[in-house]
Every structure is written in C-alpha cells, then in structure tokens.
Amino acid sequence: MEEFRRNLLQRIQQRISLRGFCVVYNNDLSQLSKPLEELRAQQVRDIQRFARSHGLSVEIRDIGLNATFRLLPTKASATSTAEPIARV
Predict the structure, then answer these.
(1) How many CA atoms lie within 13 A of 84 on its CB side?
(2) Alpha helices of 1-88 — where are they, by DSSP H?
(3) Burial code of 21-36, b = ≥16 C-beta within 10 A, e = fewer?
C-alpha cells in the first residue's frame, strides 16, 4: 500500500509539473480510502424504493469518483492581484 501511495504521488507531481494539474480516477482513489460500501448500498436501496413508490423504474449507474490535484498556492501567489480562475 505504501508503494502505491509513493507511486501515485510521483505520478501526480510529474503531471502537475507538465500540465499544472493531475486528474486521478476512482480506480486509484479507492485504494487511498475504501468506500463505505454499506452506505452506497443503502443509497441504492433508497433510490429504488423511491422509484417503486412512484411507479417508476430506475437504472443506477455508478460513474465513480475523480479528483483533480493542483499545487497549493504559495504565499507570494496568494497575495497576487490576478483574478482567480472560475470553476464550473
């Protein structure tokens, strides 16, 4: 597990140096923090129950989780007068 974390950090740092950011997807993120499977199962049951109670069918797709990593701003850049980038 520790080797995975070191390799992931190295990959993130390398991509940030090239692009300014690095996106990491669920298959890697799930190894950092195991999902709360019971909570997820309860969410699915609640959605199915809601659909049935209203005469609906439902197809649930788990599109997963992703995270975009960026370097934290330094004190010098945090005091810059530049406008922050809007996030959508």
Answers:
(1) 6
(2) 2-19, 26-32, 37-53, 75-78
(3) ebebeeebeeeeeeee
User: Amino acid identity of 23?
Assistant: V
* Tokens read off for 10: 């190295």
34-80: pLDDT as tens digits: 666 777 788 889 989 999 998 988 888 776 777 898 988 887 765 55
Find tokens 């995270």 and name the residue: 67
If you ran DSSP here, which 8-state letter would residue 65 be given? Answer: -
As a whole number of angstroms, the distance between CA 10 and CA 18 comes to 12
Task: Kindly provide the b/e burial profile for residues 45-83, where b requires at least 16 CB atoms within 10 angstroms of the residue's own CB.
Answer: eeeeeeeeeeeeeeeeeeeeeeeeeeeeeeeeeeeeeee
